[in-house]
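User: I'm new to structure prediction. If I give you an amino acid sequence, what do you actually give back? Let's try with this one:
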Amino acid sequence: MVITQEIFEAFLRCRTKAYLISQRDVADATSGQVRRPWEEFFRQSGTSWLRASFSDGEICTGTPGVAAIDRQQYRLILDYAALTTGLRAQLHGLELIMSVR
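Assistant: Good question. You get back a string of structure tokens that encode the predicted 3D arrangement of the chain. For your 101 residues, that looks like this:
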């Protein structure tokens, strides 16, 4: 395999992308059609792995109310939507880490 400038530059940013570019079997390594199934697979795998670390009462799926967050009711929040004026972010997961003082 010949390492082209394109593959080398991609490797500096992401080894997976460099591999996909080098294969040329993939239509477009940066397209959503290629990434979307893998992103969903890794999100689901990560979610399952995280869920196994907590009891059901410690997990919230969705966006809990401000009061629940203030009370630190949940140790794990999945699929959290953060909204401000002009900005929306969908976070796959948030974990409460208790600080030691």
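You can read the tokens as a compact description of the fold. Here is one thing that stands out. The mean pLDDT is 84.
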